[in-house]
Amino acid sequence: MALVAEVERLGRRVDALRVVLAGEVADRSRPNRGARGLAVSRGCRTPADLIEQLTQVSGTTARRRVVLAGDVRRDSFPGGDRTEARFDLVAQAVEDGTIGIDAATVITKGLTSLLAHGSLDELGKAKTELVAAATGTGPDSTVPVSADSVRVMVCVWQAKLDPDGLDPAEDRSMAVRDFRFGPERNGLLHGSFRLMAEAGGRVKTLFDAYLTPTTAPAFMTEEERATAEAEGGKDSRTPAQQRHDIFVAIIDAMARSGQAPTIGGAAPTVLVSVRAEDLASGQGAGWSDRVEGPVSMRTVRQMVCTGGIQKVVLSQEGRIVRLGSPERCFTPPQRRAISLRDGGCIIPGCTIPAGWCEIHHVIPDKDGGPTHPDNGVLLCWFHHRTIDTSEWQIRMRHGVPEVKPPPWIEYFGTWRPATKSRTRLLDRLDAPPE
Ligand SMILES: [Zn+2]
Questions:
Q1: What residues sit around ligand 1, an ion, with C-beta below 5 angstroms?
Q2: Residue 194 has what pLDDT?
């Protein structure tokens, strides 16, 4: 540990030199030098480009050095006199190697944004405090804090010195908020989003609430964690994968809620077409109009299991000769009844609520399983998708779902009734002892 800290201290010394040299390159590439400018004469557009070429660092790193140099370098004028740097304290700390490039950049950027607001006194105070915190030299801060903590302090100063600045800043983020769907590659739809901070906070809170207990960032006692792990086994998914699954569940629930706008008179439904013989054999692929690539038969089966199917018979030439009505589709009342009975995804340890679950045919339709509440159980999207491979077993006993954990959780697993319905749990409490 001592070595890690020591090497970092050395690195900061080297970093200081890097910044000085970046400043030198920028200085010798000043626009007023025209074609004699250093960067231009070497065929580079900007000083950062030249540094990137000389050092093979990323463009971001090179630009960061140049920008920081502009703030902390003591400018030399043709006359030779060196003037004070814009941020003398920061400059000194960088030079002494007591503050890294990360923290220095955070401070100079933050203070620059404050220049137009606070009085000189206040700005000076902010500068002194931030540098003191970052270098651990303040009256009440003898331990240097990380660049991230300095960033938080900068935010606090911004809010103090420029309380009105928050509105324009928010207006700016309002203008650039977005949610984009990108290209579909390798079976994944890519995309990006920029959420308003408070909207993002809400999304995070919602997601966190439904992460399984073993990965949720909640404060659990060791005992609670152990119980959660014993009940459901450790979730093999990363938190990021779980967030994906939660997102899918939320969207499904929304589409089903009856409050979603209709498309052509029907609730927004994703249609997948597949040839009957492919579905029967489990080979081949399905196609969906909103998905470019083929959809695997496993996905098609999951969608049929939860969403039903409608048969269309085409003639050789392609004419529709018979149109079946939707089948294997649990009706809303059936769904409500099953939700009441199961209360949520029936896999122990899973936290997805009933409204976000899919209904799984315990005995598949192809084996004669009926679309009846006695044969339907709630599973979240993920547990439904992986039910054939996860080794969780489900059976119905007198119309009551029971689950048996896979051998890697419990070697000689036993069947146990599964419900998360509070109504039913209450019922059990009231039941006379056996
Ligand atoms: Zn689940």
A1: 345, 347, 350, 352, 380, 383
A2: 92
